[in-house]
UniProtKB/TrEMBL annotation:
Gene for this chain: pdxJ
Source organism: Pelomonas lactea
Protein name per its UniProtKB record: Pyridoxine 5'-phosphate synthase
Localisation: Cytoplasm
Pfam family, one: PdxJ
Known catalytic reactions: 3-amino-2-oxopropyl phosphate + 1-deoxy-D-xylulose 5-phosphate = pyridoxine 5'-phosphate + phosphate + 2 H2O + H(+)
Length: 255
């Protein structure tokens, strides 16, 4: 156990509602409702809502982002996090809505799902003005990054406030003989990020089984954005019970 894991405040849960929209989009009936999903998750104690409006609008559409931005004005404590590639459609949403946080993700237009972080310093020049623009609009910038301690100084140099650790490699190693070695890479990256003054988020394929181990070992995680597994759980348990279950997992990681 890394003692630094307990140094900061408890990790916030931001529910990614992409998959609610994905199901909704298979009919023209407006159900299940993305807004009602967000409301139920917040009522159950989630601290934020995340969306990833992809250029092909396969799940979250521009109108969902507009509706959520308006809805969240009545939830001043809730964080709105919009993810996407700032060289595609993302900056339009940032300019229009000025969410609390934007997460830059280097996905291609037809990416199946996010599967890697930015490469620095190669991506630095095109990211720099976009980071600056978002920050000038009052939006915190987080860069989606693979676990690589050596890259953290370059992120700090670019001026982003946070990174989001891409956690799929941890999720797929969870419960295998690779788990501890993979986790050590995330811990080392988090320590390097904290050392250069970066904040820390995490996401991708986190779930009720693997989340606690991650939070107990990786120091300083401020926000976990969870979508696919949480919405799948909600189909079986309901939103409120599911969000409470995840919040219990987070609480026990700090007990
Ligand atoms: C950025 C990230 O980690 C992703 O998990 C993403 O938001 C999920 O996208 P899909 O829901 O389209 O797979
Ligand atoms: N940033 C990660 C996210 O929002 C949700 O990822 P997943 O839980 O759907 O894999």
């Amino acid at each position: 156990m890394n003692p630094l894991a307990h140094a900061g405040a408890r990790c916030a849960l931001s529910v990614n509602v992409n998959k609610v929209a994905l199901l909704r989009n298979t009919r023209h009936l407006g159900i299940p409702s993305v807004l009602r999903a967000a409301e139920q998750c917040l009522l159950a104690g989630a601290q934020g809502i995340t969306v990833h409006p992809r250029p092909d609008a396969r799940h979250i559409r521009a109108s969902d982002v507009d509706d959520l931005a308006a809805f969240l004005k009545d939830w001043p404590q809730a964080e709105f996090n919009i993810e996407g590639n700032p060289t595609q459609n993302l900056m339009d949403f940032v300019r229009r809505h000025r969410p609390h946080q934007v997460t830059f993700v280097p996905d291609s237009e037809d990416q199946f799902t996010s599967d890697h972080g930015w490469t620095l310093p190669q991506d630095a020049e095109r990211l720099k003005p976009l980071i600056q623009e978002a920050q000038d609009l009052g939006v915190r910038v987080s860069l989606f990054m693979d676990p690589n301690p050596a890259a953290m100084a370059a992120v700090a140099e670019l001026g982003a406030e946070r990174i989001e650790l891409y956690t799929e490699t941890f999720a797929s190693a969870f419960g295998t003989e690779r788990q501890d070695a993979v986790l050590a890479g995330f811990t080392a990256t988090a320590e390097a990020a904290l050392k250069v003054g970066l904040g820390l988020n995490a996401g991708h394929d986190l779930n009720r089984d693997n989340l606690s181990l991650f939070l107990r070992h990786v120091p300083g995680v401020q926000e976990a954005s969870i979508g696919h597994a949480l919405i799948a759980d909600a189909l079986e348990l309901g939103y409120a019970e599911t969000v409470r279950a995840y919040l219990r997992v987070i609480a026990t990681a700090y007990a």
